[in-house]
Specification:
This protein is mainly α and 257 residues long. The chain has two domains: 102 residues, no CATH class; 119 residues, no CATH class. 46% of the residues lie in helices and 6% in strands. It contains eleven helices and four strands, in the order ααααααααββαββαα. The strands form two sheets. Strands 1-2 form a two-stranded antiparallel sheet. Strands 3-4 form a two-stranded antiparallel ribbon. A hairpin with a 5-residue loop joins strand 3 and strand 4. Helix 1 crosses helix 3, helix 1 crosses helix 5 and helix 1 crosses helix 6. The chain is globular.
Length: 257
């Protein structure tokens, strides 16, 4: 370590991973407003935060697969905190959000601009559950869309108003991977509905597979353009976290061949 430099703490590293998950790979530089904001919050320079994000990138299997090495000199603490995230995404990411909210002297709801005014009128545990669900959905969308550079991973549509962060393993049946980016696909509304209905699935080699039902209507231009033409095509490549192949296998059991 160079003279004058200070070691990163566990809290600072958690906040860095939290940011790493939220911004696209190509935006992890010292001029990014989010990088500058975190730097001010933890009393470091934007360049220092950007370097830490680069260190974390060297631990990302997806980037390793693409031949992107990230920055060297990762610490033992970097590795430990990264592994904690890999093993327990939901709890670790919420911990990061709570820490960030605390540093900013606000609540996690306000930090993420969650509107709680239109919640059903309930009390106690039920209200707490609804608030947590809304926060989780907001965070999952942000992480997944960032992972696919804010575009649909089937069509490449880049209008975020039309995009959905779709769970591979449904929210209702897997309670420990609700925030895991490896359990998410960025889809437009039409293909999200088809994926959820089992009319589209993704193979373990990340190819799109469409149901034979569509071929009954192959003369319909919209069916040809929106579904049949994508059969066998590769997904738009995520920038960081690959879909978990075990999750994809579970979804394939629901596929209507």
């Amino acid at each position: 370590m160079k003279e004058g430099q200070k070691l990163w703490t566990r809290e600072e590293t958690i906040l860095a991973i939290n940011l790493y998950c939220k911004i696209p790979f190509g935006q992890m530089h010292s001029r990014n407003a989010a990088v500058i904001d975190l730097a001010l919050l933890i009393h470091r320079t934007p360049s220092s935060v950007a370097r830490k994000l680069g260190n974390l990138a060297s631990l990302d299997p997806k980037l390793q697969q693409r031949g992107i090495k990230g920055l060297p000199n990762i610490s033992k603490l970097d590795q430990e905190v990264w592994q904690d995230y890999m093993l327990n995404w939901d709890d670790q990411f919420i911990e990061g959000e709570q820490l960030l909210a605390s540093k900013k002297a606000t609540s996690i709801e306000k930090l993420n601009s969650i509107d709680l005014n239109n919640l059903p009128i309930v009390e106690g545990y039920e209200k707490e559950r609804l608030v947590k669900s809304r926060i989780n959905q907001h965070l999952f969308r942000r992480i997944v869309l960032s992972n696919y550079n804010n575009q649909c991973c089937i069509t490449g549509i880049a209008l975020t108003e039309l995009l959905v962060a779709s769970h591979i393993l449904p929210w209702s049946i897997d309670k420990v991977n609700r925030l895991n980016p490896a359990n998410g696909l960025s889809l437009n509304n039409l293909h999200d509905k088809a994926f959820d209905s089992g009319l589209i699935t993704i193979t373990e080699d990340f190819k799109i597979k469409v149901s034979s039902r569509f071929y009954k209507y192959k003369e319909v231009k919209s069916i040809q353009d929106n579904f049949i033409q994508y059969n066998g095509q590769p997904l738009v490549e995520p920038k960081k976290f690959l879909p978990n192949t075990e999750f994809l296998k579970v979804h394939q059991d629901r596929f209507i061949s």
